[in-house]
Amino acid sequence: MENLYKILEDKYGISKEIYNFVDEAEKGLKKDFENRKIISQYNQVKILKAMQNQKLQSTDFNWTTGYGYGDIGRDKVEDIYADIFNTEDALVRPNIVSGTHAISLSLFSLLNKGDHMLSISGRPYDTLQKVIGIVGQEKGSLKEIGVEYSELALKNGSIDIQNIDEIIQDNTKLIAIQRSTGYSDRKALTIDEIREASDYIKNKFPDIIIFIDNCYGEFTEMYEPTDFSADIMAGSLIKNPGGGLAYSGGYVVGSKDIISRVANRLTAPGIGKDCGLSFGMTRQILQGLFIAPKVVEDAINSALLFSRVFEKLGYKTIPKSTDKRSDIILAIELKDPELLKSFCRAIQESSPVDSIFTPEPWDMPGYEDKVIMAAGGFIEGSSIELSADGPLRDPYTVYYQGGLTYYHAKIALMNVLKYFI
Ligand SMILES: *Cc1c(COP(=O)(O)O)cnc(C)c1O
User: Fold this and answer.
1) Cβ–Cβ contacts within 10 Å for residue 2, how many?
2) What pLDDT sits at residue 183?
3) pTM of the complete model beyond 0.85
4) Which DSSP state fits 367?
5) With a cut of 50, which residues of the chain have pLDDT below it?
6) Is residue 98 a contact partner of residue 236, using CB atoms and an 8 Å limit?
7) pLDDT at 367
8) Is residue 45 helix, strand or coil?
9) Which of 184, 215, 367 to mutate to test the pocket of ligand 1 (most atoms within 8 A of CB)?
10) What is the per-residue pLDDT for 365?
11) How far, in Å, is the centroid of ligand 1 from the Cα of 99?
């Protein structure tokens, strides 16, 4: 103990007060960490077995060129994803450039002029508002092609199942549910809540497609929305399922019919999933997936430690350290633009890469307000790595997420606390 404190004091100037404060909070989380281990092991079994079921071999990591016909590795990645997420098929590609792209691709594949899309988890994530056409005048938004949109606000942080019937229209084609907090002030929706809503809809309106934005949710619980009645789900490989190793990419999982539509939209009708290089990334994608449960465990434990510490300091955190978790995000209402900037700067300074840079608020493409982002990761913009960001708007909430290792996050927390203690 004394040696650990000494090196933190020597290298980072951590005070005894900060050290003890964090140590105390950590001791109080022992039981939560134990529970988390079980979820993590459950997911490890699923992933290991999927790789064996699909007979992954070392030769699957080889490159192909040109059209990429017969890229066995690419096909295995997709079969493994489908196996893990319990769907008929999957599309997992490095050239799906982000989570937004994976979601946008899914929506444009399934919605046409005259269709109605309904979000039942309130206002969607910032970048999707431009995709849908809720804000801005983006060329080629869903609105521009004639897709109608409406949303059902959450009620006390949960899906307002009682009022779903009322808001569904004759032309409602797709219902979207966002699992994670995003840049909002609500908790992630748990698998139980998502399941209840999707079962209800599927029973009553079997033709409506249930779409899940699963960003940041993967492997935080034992089950995923597609283990139950969700039809299609999308996410980013530079968040949870890439385990910090995938260079880029996104995934979409669902039925054969749905995935063939999505693939035809990504490439071209008639080509679908059969073309597209994986650019030698199969190994990183799968190695990242393999370690993802452990990485997600550490990221959640890091978020738990941050939330417990900031609660003790009197800040409002979402979720609370005692809430059930279904994503890796922690929102802390700092109520002060300067504290938001300081928090992000301390995270940046604590990063293994780009620690010499100072983050500044900027107009990030796809976002309405200026956003400050701290991330010094090995993969640019990867938010399964230790990162913190927040839009410069009241109540100046910082969204903290990631941490490839818990120990790294803990050091960063102590550096952040220099501005608070
Ligand atoms: C991160 C995220 C997205 C997509 O973001 P990208 O930065 O485009 O990967 C979409 N929805 C939610 C809830 C997210 O957290």
Assistant:
1) 5
2) 79
3) yes
4) -
5) none
6) yes
7) 72
8) helix
9) 215
10) 77
11) 5
